Each structure stands twice: as C-alpha cells, then as structure tokens.
Amino acid sequence: MNTKVDLESRIPNNVGLKEDRRLQRALEQWQPAFIDWWRQMGPEGFQEKDVYLRTAVSVESGGWAHFDYVKMPEYRWGIFLEPPVKGRKVGFGDHFGEPAWQEVPGEYRNPLRRIIVTQGDTEPASVEQQRMLGKTAPSLYDLRNLFQVNVEEGRHLWAMVYLLHTYFGRDGRYEAEELLARRSGDADRPRILGAFNQPIENWLDFYMFTTFTDRDGKYQLLALAESGFDPLSRTCKFMLTEEAHHMFVGETGVERVIRRTVEVMREHPDDDPRRHGVLDLPTIQKFLNLWFTLSLDLFGGEISTNAADFFANGLKGRHKEEEYDDHLALDRHYAMKVVKEGKVVEEQVPLRNAMNEVLRDAYVEDDERCVKKWNRVFEKEGMDFRLRLPSRRFHRHIGIYAGHWFDPDGHLLSEVEWEKRRGQWLPDARDRSYVQSLMTPVLEPGKVANWVAPPRVGINKHPFAWEYVRL
Ligand SMILES: [Fe+2]
Ligand SMILES: [Fe+2]
After folding, report:
1. Does domain 17-470 have CATH number 1.10.620.20?
2. What are 94-131's pLDDT values in tens digits?
3. Which of the listed residues 134, 145, 235, 388 has the most CB atoms within 10 Å of its CB?
4. Does pTM surpass 0.90?
C-alpha cells in the first residue's frame, strides 16, 4: 500500500486514497456531512475566528505537526496511519503468532465493527459536550487548547470513519452516518457510553475530563493498537500521538487550579477560599471523584465474556502486550474483589474474563502518578492536604460494584447512608453553581481568570501572552 503523505487532496491522507476512487468518492461524500455537523455541534461562537492550531501533516515523529492560524471549519482533517510493520503477527489470544490481518476476518466482522463504532462515537461526543466552554474560557491560551482538543477529536472520528468505509462496506457507511446523527446527552439518540452523555459545564469539569476521560481513551487506544486487525492497530498508534496533548491540557489545568488556590490560602490562611473567588480544595476533590469514577465505568464490566472473546479472537489486547510473558492467558487467574452476601471477598476469575480489569489496573496506576504530581504543590507549600483517587468501587454504574454503595475508601454502606453523605463526595448543586459563578471569560492576551494560575510555558515556544486566538 502507498503510504506517501498526500496533503493536496480534498482529504489529506497517507493511505493512497487517490488510488482507490470508490473509497475516495465515498469519503468525499461524507465530508460535507461532517462539516455540517462541525458547524452545528462544534465550538459555539468561534467558528470564524483564526485559531493557532497544530495540524497533523505526517506520521514522522520529528515533524508530524504544523502550527498556524486557521478557521476551525477549514481545518485540514486528514487520515493518517502509522506505517505498517513488515511481517507483523497477531500478538495474543488464540491466533497468537499468525500473520496480522490486512482485511477483516469474516467471523469477527460484527465485534470489530462494534469496537470501532464505540471508539468512534466518543470522539464527536466529547466535542459536543465541550461546545459551550469557549464562552467562559479563563484565557486565550486555554481557549486555544480547548479548540485544539476539539479539532483533534474530529480527526479521530475521521480515523474511525476511514476504517468503517474501507473495510465494512454498506454497513460501514451506515455506521459513519450514525456517528454524525447521535448527540451527547440526547434523550432519544444519545451517544453510546455513559461518560460521554454527561454535561461538561465548566472548566473544572473540562480539566478533569481531559485528565481522566481522555486517559481512558489512551488506554483503549493502547489496547486496540495491539489488535490483530492491522489497519486498526496502525490507526490507533497515530491517534495516541495526539492524545498525549489532551491529557497534558487536563493535568496542567488541574495543577494550575491547585496552585492558584494554594496561593490564595497562603495569603488568607483563615478564610474560606471561596470568599476570594477561587476553588476550595474539597470541591476540587469532588470533581476528581466524579470524573475518575465515570471514566472507570468506560472500561466495562470487571468480569466480562465480551472482553474474554475480544482477547481470545485477537481483536483487543492488553496495554503493552509484549511486556507479558504469556500471550494466551489461558490457565491463569485474576484475584478479583467481589461483593458476596454483603461483604467484599476475593475470588479467582479466569484471566481472560478479567481483561477489562487488567486494563483498568494500568489506567488507575497512570492516574495515581498524575495525582502524585498534583500533590507536589501541597508538599512544596508544607501543607498536609492531599488529593487522592477514591476506591474503584465507589460511585460505579457498570460492572460488579454497580448497585452497591461504597464510600471513597471502598467500604460498603447502605443506600440510605450513602445518599446522606453523597454531597461530601460528589459535587452538588451548590458546588456547581459556585464553580459556574467563577466562569467569566478572560480573553485578552496575557490575562488569566482569578481562579487559575497562568501556565508555566506557552504553546510551540510562544509566550503565554500570545494571541492564540484572534478575536
Ligand atoms: Fe480522541
Ligand atoms: Fe482526546
């Protein structure tokens, strides 16, 4: 296959689109529908502004992106796959060691389509969730970062639609249309996964979402990058390059919120930080609890025959599969904490059935590293306060802990007790309206809202006080 980069065509790509007229025509027909969706559901109020954005122009690690001012509807969304690895083999499951598939194996057509559609659905969903945030951006730098994340989620949708159009015939074209028809939070046609139907109303939501929910995306992509279906693997590998920036936006965003709060607490040690227009620490912890647990649900049930089948069939592997010593995972078990007769007890689950939990373990570990980094702000200040991840049993809606009531330490409670204390752990209406009251836009270069510290560095070596969006 031709993997030369073609930036001149209507759809920039490195998949030799020119040589496949039918596919090219099909994608060129989908393109205007995508642009319509973007104009309707993309960032509200800034479509005609020049935004300093990076655009993927190749998959070379040195110079894969190009930075310039662009109006978002004119962004060059392209299709880029990592170059194929010669002689690549299926790395796990029952087909371990067989050549990776360049076409969809007939017997796995349905599950593969479902995997791709589910991943694809999250991309436009997050753009829809975030579409009003531009109106309350705390700085031009943040505004630009929001739009950068948004256009790249748009490109990720293109990546999945490319796979659907290329490998799934009429079904794939139908699914590509459906991806533009569902709407985040819509009662009749919601997005597929729960966290992607939750409102992102303010910038604390946004920073937590990009920290925790985009990181779920990272781990799903890592697992799919292992897939025996080679085009899916190559697509996901390149998406991971862009994903790193989304988590950067979240992690540094929360860190800036903490720094600003700590600064105010130092100046006014005896006051409620809310009196000084910044976020108090319990509120930050509550938003962390919310988005961490919503994101945990995205990994699916702890004990799952679907996950076992995906692994057995070579469709979805573990994160960094090559680091495991046993790629069949046949006779091993996973020690799972389950709820039995009102108690948490350990049970041995066949490893293949626990693959969602194995991936969740890697994810939680990564989150822990992130929270540790945030806590350094308190350490440096000599404060005792620490943020922490709640137990993964807390506030779950999917899997074996759903329908049970755990506190953030993982202790079982009655539903009544849990509901009574809910407001200590999760944002309530008062918290939300306080956070909302801080959300007034600051859109002058070099200025930043009172509740968040400026970033330490700008974008692409520009200073913070740079005109990242021309208003
Ligand atoms: Fe994405
Ligand atoms: Fe993302």
Report:
1. yes
2. 999 999 999 999 999 999 999 999 999 999 999 999 99
3. 235
4. yes
